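[step 3/7] fold_predict: job queued, chain A
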Amino acid sequence: MKSALNSRIFLTLLKENKLPRPEAEYRFDKTRRWRFDWAWPKEKIACEQEGGIWTTHSRHTRGSGFVKDMEKYNKAALLGWKVLRYSPSQMQNEAIRDLKEIMGEKNVVCLFCGAATIKELPKGLELKEMQKLCRKLKTQ
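[step 4/7] structure written:
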């Protein structure tokens, strides 16, 4: 569970780091009531703040709650989501660092083979040049 103060701090840090504003409490599955604490649906990136990790009375650390969390995160992975998980104290540093890294990714899947990727697609490439680049990337 996120506190209002932690949420404001997190959103402020995102803005200061020029990261896009996420949707709060985003429901990612149509059949279940699962929600992500923070989500960027277009990018399929979610950020979860795990509460109660240092207590034995938390839903997340008891057996049934832990299993339900695993079910949620596995379903998210099957749906193509990247889920980043943090303790409350990690939300101000590690989460921002990791989100900067993951949001900065500009991998492009090759249109011809679907496998090779490059960081940025060169502008103005002709079809033959793209096919040549594809073959080159496959051999690397």
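[step 5/7] annotate
The CA atoms of residues 27 and 34 lie 6 Å apart.
Helices lie at 4-16, 63-78, 94-103, 127-139.
exit 0
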